Amino acid sequence: MNSELESRIRQTGYRLYDLMEGEAGSIFSREYWVGKLFEWCMNSEPFKVQMLRFIDVFPYLRDTDAVIGHIQQYFSDPTLNFPSAVNWGIKYVAPSWMTSRIIAGSIGMNIAKVARQFIAGTSAKDSLPVLEKLRSSGLAFSIDLLGEAVVSEKEADGYAERYLQLFEFLDSAQSSWRPLGAVLGGLDWGHSPRVNVSIKPSAMYSQMNACAFEHSIEKSKERLRPILRRAVKAGAFVNFDMEHHGLKDLTFALHQSIMEEAEFGSYPHTGIVIQAYLRESEKDLERIIRWANQGGFHLTVRLVKGAYWDQEVIVAGQRNWPVPVFAVKSETDANFEHLARIILQNSNRLKLACASHNIRSISAVVEMAKEAGVAGEQIEFQVLYGMGQPVRNALHKAGLHVRVYCPVGEMLQGMAYLVRRLLENTANQSFLRQTFSQRLPKADLLRNPVDKLNKSLPGPPGAGLARHEGPPPESVGSEIAREAGHGVGPFTIEPVYDWSRSEHRRQFAAALNNVRERFPIQVPLQIGGYRIQTASGFASLNPNDSYETVGTVCSADIKEAELAIAAAKSAFPQWRDTPAQHRADCLFKAAASARLKRRELAALQVLEVGKTWSEADADVCEAIDYLEYYGREMLRRAAPRPMGQVPGETSFLLYEPRGVAVVIAPWNFPMAISTGMSSAAIVTGNTVVYKPASQSPVTGFMLNGIFEEAGLPRGVFNFVPGPGSSLGDVLTAHPDVALIAFTGSRDVGLHILAKAHENNERSAFVKNVVLEMGGKNAIIVDSDADLDEAVVYALHSAFGYQGQKCSACSRLIVVEDIYDRFVERLKAAAQSIGIGPVEFPQNFMGAVIEQAARDRILGYVEMGKNAGYPLFELSPVGRNGAHPHPAGNGWFVPLSIFTDVDPESRLAQEEIFGPVLAVIKVKDFDEALRVANGTQYALTGGVLSRSPANIRKARENFRTGNLYINRGCTGAIVGRHPFGGFKMSGLGSKAGGPDYLLHFMIARNIVENTVRKGYAPLEGAPPD
Ligand SMILES: Cc1cc2nc3c(=O)[nH]c(=O)nc-3n(C[C@H](O)[C@H](O)[C@H](O)COP(=O)(O)OP(=O)(O)OC[C@H]3O[C@@H](n4cnc5c(N)ncnc54)[C@H](O)[C@@H]3O)c2cc1C
Fold it and tell me: Roughly what angle, to the nearest 10 degrees, separates helices 449-456 and 329-345?
């Protein structure tokens, strides 16, 4: 930037500051409760956390007891040094006292004040005086209807309807509004519609999902079209707001797709948002400019910094994705100015809406526009309602066109928005905070962000923004992957696909075609390193289309089973004595090989076991994680451990493999669980006879190939597909088998346990059995649960992969206060999901694994009907998504939700392993816990609650192997959520955790007396 321009920017900045002098009404003013609240939040991080959480839950609290109860739980922790003003004197009062009611009332009023600070009104009508007051002061507005968190099509309809009503209302109101800027022609400032509305695209379709990209756009357009039509009729402006990064490309595509329709193409009054905090924002902007130039479109670009910074960082961290946002605030600020310049350079197509409260950013836009010779009508300045009134007034006084973004809605609907505003204003980096609260010197605040950046970063001056842009997302991800693949560095999870990236969608669709072209895949056995064909065989079928044969599979019989055990036995001594490092390296190589075939492996699962794209991809990632994790775990355990340290003695604890391991795997996580059990056995030095499930032998064969490519010696891994009924007993009862790892149903698991321990004269071992069995998992929904989230978590946990996960939620235990509201929303949400063949990504639920499973599940549904429980049912649809498709050639069952179920009934006690959910009503949280614990199983459980006291109770008393608080109860992640249950759910072996490998080894202790004639070396050496 040239120095002349830079000095003009500063001058403008100072002038705007001068215009703010004497302006009252900053949100940081301590005269007001909001200002005080901000001050407390800024002074104490623990208080800020509790306050944001309390504000988040507050609209859900129905009575005084609940308000007081929550305040006591949130704010009376003596270890947190809260501002005395916040004590509110409630620590010691009983909720029933009159004092409590007064305090609760006053807190309610104060929170309502905070909400009113940022929300213009509860409805369009209610906010009209605010809008008209703004207009009479010379300010334009944009209305945003809160309530975008739609979980069902019914709610999306309601949201769209509210927009239609809004246009109706504003259209008739606008006739009495004089255009701003005292110009003729009915438009503000001569060019801008008086009615301006902002829309959240995610609310246009409740199942919006980047994986089903085109489908999501088509469905969203169905709701958007009438809204846009009505807007055109009113001559109004419609802005497509930008939400989190996962929705970015969908939002741009939605806008472009609808504007390309002949009906809307020439309408110039629409806009999109560019978030300058995104590293890829410049590329997005360039794409939009190309699109506008090629199609002859005119639009407005609202340039913002971005409101989801914390969320983006958290999500990327959890998924091991590259962080999409800049890490340093001045990078965002510098990028904001850079993007503004690009927009100004393209003013033939784009108008600029500069949406910021930052005087430096605004001044830069003002001066760059002048320099570029862009007319005033091409630019407007936008601010948020309730934020930085002095800024907006100064801009107005400076003669700039100012628009105020006014959210409208009930407090409950506005909580997410409110929390974003509180976070933003109390952040250390907030310009408003630095100006009005910290009162930093103006010279600092007006400094060029590129200079700040150069100061804060090492390296030559002038490198600035470019230097800190970081590698493109793909290379960051693959760098992490490469490092992990070499078995060095700490364990990190394999990132699942980000479906918002078009290349992932495209490549996955291609992988489905490619893998299908190879059907039926021929699957031999592999024993002692040799491929073996057998006379007998069976077919693996696509559950969504049973006419499609995925693989033709050779079937092992008793003879082959014994051969495989013999091969494993003979390979054992050498493998046992192979250094742990080498064994671990084999796992790392296997991980690298799986990574290379990742798409093919996942696509195969879509077709062989009926997983959705995301579920299949997650399964393959989990398999890679096991390989990487157990490899590292083995290295951790490899060295003998010195025990006790007394002179004259060495004592070491060391681990050895057990011998031949039989791995009997399930079909529901055909890659992940097979890999997990097998790799744990292999890396610890055992040799393996692996029997895949009869429903997923082709995937099992892929695992065989991966281990082969990893260079395992012959006989270390033997692959014997075949019927469990005949093969299972031979393998598990065999005297040469030392260890069995099984995941599957309770009945089979218990049978294996009995068989394994049958007395056999030839047995040389008491076999160790690693057992993972079923669950009857419950999620408790507390009366203060966030329903927007609870509904989604419940649906995903219960019906993801058709409920065919041992961790799936099959009991929903709901506290009666919230029961009716919750159940109504749950049913509406269930009604909205797609059921059909899962190779089409718009289908959330597909067919169940096989005919027998279908019959069993339908039997339970019948049982529930006979018991008279109210039933909500959603039936599948056909391939083209249009026609009811009750059976067809896929093994479809309906999604079933039974309500008011007796917790002792078979429906609520027996594992069904299908999409059947029993909803149970309970009086309170204590009863919920009793019911949750009241089955034979203890695998996973969930609690959705915002009461710290109830969360504590759950931690102490909800006895499951995996307890998930405020999230769904499926989706354990290797290294983070050691997985496995107890009671009838298994032996508590905790796959993916630090103790898992111990089940596959025996511990030996070797002691040597090192004293010779009263002399001993000082330190003992470990055994070789
Ligand atoms: C009219 C209007 C409409 C808006 N619409 C949207 C919208 O559709 N979508 C949307 O996401 N936002 C939207 N915003 C919010 C906007 O993104 C900003 O969050 C907000 O305006 C604060 O930016 P600022 O320039 O006023 O303040 P500043 O204090 O200068 O900037 C704060 C911003 O800097 C960024 N930041 C903070 N810390 C860091 C860091 N460590 N590294 C990198 N960057 C950091 C964040 O984006 C943060 O919000 C809108 C704002 C306005 C005024």
Answer: 140
